[in-house]
Amino acid sequence: MEIFVSVSGRICLTLHVLFLFIGVVVGQDPPECTMLTGSTCACVFPDGTKIDLSPLDGANKPAFDFKEPTVPDDFMYAYNPCTPFSSGDCTNVAVCQRSKDLSHYYNIGNPSTAEFSGTGDAISYSGGEEGRQTDVQLLCNKDANTPKYVVDGQISDKHYKLQVTSCHACRGGCPPGSGKKGLSFGSILCILFVVLVFVYLIGGIIFNRYARGASGKEVIPNVSLWEEFPLLVKDGFVFVASCCKSDSSYESI
Length: 253
What we know:
This protein is an alpha+beta fold. It is 29% helix and 26% strand. The protein is built from 3 helices and 14 strands. Strand 11 (122-125) and strand 12 form a beta hairpin.
C-alpha cells in the first residue's frame, strides 16, 4: 500500500511539473518582429528571419498606384512601402490620398513613422495631414509572386486601411526560385528557329565544301534560291498590292 501511494505521488508530481511547463510555454508571448535598423519597410524576428518589403518598393514613385477603395468614395489611394514619393500636394509620403477630380491631395502616412505589428502582419503610419493615419495589412501568400493591392479606404475618422498580399509579406520572404518564369511558347519557337537556321547553314556549307567540292558562294546551301529570294519577296508585295486596288473603270457595252 505504501509503495502504491509513493508511486502515485511521484506520478502526480511529474504530471504537475509537466502541465506547469506546458502552461509556461503556451503562455509565452510570440516573438516580436522589430523594425530593422535603417529601414522603414523591414522587421526582424529574434531568430534572424525577416519580413522585408523592399522588393516591392517603387523607388520614387508608388509601387501601388492610386486605386479606388472596395466601397468607392471620392478618393483614391497610393502606397509605397520603403521610399518616400511625391504626387501633387503629397510630398515625401508613404501613403497619399487623392480626390478623383485631382483637386485635393492629403498625406495620410509619413514614412518615418512606420511601425510593424509584433507579429509582422501589419505596418502602420501616422503623422499625416490633420492627424491622418493608415494601417497596411500584410497578407502572406507564398505563391503570390505578383503582389495584390486592395484599398479598404476610410475605416474611421481620418483613419485608413490598405491590404498588400505577397510572398514578401511572409516571414523569411519568398520561397527559393519563386518569381522565375519559364520560357513562353513563342520564345521556344524563336530559339528552335535560330538553331535550325544555324544547323542548316553550317551543315549545308560543310556538306557542299567537302562532299561536293564546292567553293566560293557555291558552298552556301541552295544559293540560287537565296539569290532569287529578294525578287520573290518583291513579286509577292506587288501581287498583294495589285489585289488590293479596286478597278473603278467599266467595260463599255
